[in-house]
Amino acid sequence: MGERIVSMKRNIYLLATCFAAIALSACSGPKQATAELEFVRAPQVQPNPNPAAPLAAIITFKASSHATTTIHISNEHHSWSLSFPEDRDPEMGLPIVGFRPNSRYELSVSIESETGAVQKSDTLHYESPGLPTHAAEFPGIKVGKVDTERAEPGYRLFNPRRRIPRDTPLGNEEELRFGESFGMLVMTDIEGNPVWYYQTDSRIAGFSYQGNGRIFYVTADFRLVEIDMLGNTTRSWYAAQRPQGEDVGTPVDALTFHHDADLMENGNIIALSTVRRKIENYFTSEYDSDAPKKDQWVMGDRIVEFSPDGKILWDWDAFDHMPSRRIGYETFSTYWERRSFPGTIDWSHANEITKLDDGSVMVNFRYQSAILNLDGKTGEIRWIFGEPGGWPEALQSKLISLEGDARWPWHQHAPLFTAKGTLLMFDNGNYRARPFDAPTPVSETWSRAVEYEVDFDSMTARQIWTSEGAELNKYVTIAMGNASETPSRNNVLVGYGAIVDPDRVDEMTWQNRAQFDQVTRCIEYTRDSPATVVWELELLPAGSDPKIGWNVFGCKIITELDI
């Protein structure tokens, strides 16, 4: 009997212990999950150690195990969050982008493991630095109209380029160095507040935001550079035959890189380069058809596609496919002389290249006032969009005709196919003629964004939209510029590159325009007819002796900070 009682007591004890363990497990489950994730070293925020991107900061910490990270940043005016996958090592530093200058912020760090365990840090405090105050180091930014209901939400990325007026077409050494030794990218919010900027030692031309926290750009010293949002160079390439610059990065067998390049999904790079040829009995004037001819060094465009290790996989030489004696205005503009190729004139002057989904290549030739589409394998010209004069008989079947009374673009930039398949571009409108017809006066060559519907079966196009007719003043943009559609509002964002001084445009000729001040604007239009302006940003000239002007190669929408 006693043994039975002892046995019963033992069983009751075991059952009680079991139930207690179950209850403890149920109650303490979350605590145990939390306990398996912790900050081994607490988060700290500090300024970006790379001075090239001073508005950015980094957060470092150590966690007990791999975890995703969310960082929330806020003050009384703005708040946003940044997320990082578990393969981003917080001990190496996580980039924080989005700070407005001279502002105080609170930051909190949350980490979460695969099992759902969460830890949150104490509140951190950070004060962002101010902007450079010298007139030559950062442009003044003025935002005009901001229609938050109709303008595209997100950020605007552009590349300020500084300049001082040139006394001569070629410019002296000081004038050239002032512009070419300074490169910058700036991102602002819709209110025009800078939230990130980057500075380097060579002027930036074409650029693209890669959507993975990387920006890819082309420099004046013939390099292609990829950076992260902390301003660190992640990859770079340089033209091995270039006449200037340090040999940093991966060499590519090319004379130059200029204006534009694309990083493609397969990892290859397609870029604009050049070929320099001596042509006998060539033109010496774009205004006088009877001017004596002579042997000339002529620069034409070359396209190169190469692998990340610099091996050229495909190339295309404009001299082999286009008529080299079909010249355009500015062939004798000293463009290549200013870039260390003395005695060299500029013939085709491409400024944009795109590898299309069908494998073909679209190239914009500014001085030819023509957009060409090339077979991506054979290099054969498939079609030509532009003013049709001067093309040889062999290419007449490639010409697209324009319906109605719409006008062709002249000296255009940045053509692209929109989501609905239309052709959108920035039409500088310069000259509105080819040699040796008389050019239209500067004061009558307004610039615009323009959109065409193209039927490649019938080889016809019709204009379906233009920014002309908007309520703002008209601008004469003598160089650079772009137009792109916005992803959610279906608007068009236009970068007016180098606008000649609107108050003195009547004094200008095509020969003396470089001696005047320039301004620049980024303007967002609705696709209504007439278009309506819903957002505008202006870069302001600064200083007095000399007065420093600013322009941009282009302006682009960044919908979110993906870093």
In CATH terms, what is the architecture of the largest domain? 7 Propeller
> Kindly state the mean pLDDT as a whole number?
91
CATH structural class of the largest domain: Mainly Beta
Count of structural domains: 2
Please give the largest β-sheet: 6 strands, antiparallel
Instruction: Please give the alpha-carbon distance between the first and last residues.
Output: 75 Å
Estimate the global geometry from the Cα principal axes.
globular
DSSP summary, beta strand count: 37
Please bin the fraction of helical residues.
under 10%
At CATH level 3, the topology of the largest domain is Methylamine Dehydrogenase, Chain H
Backbone CA Rg: 29 Å
Low-confidence segments: 1-34
Strand content: 35-45%
Structural class: mainly beta
Count of helices? Answer: 2
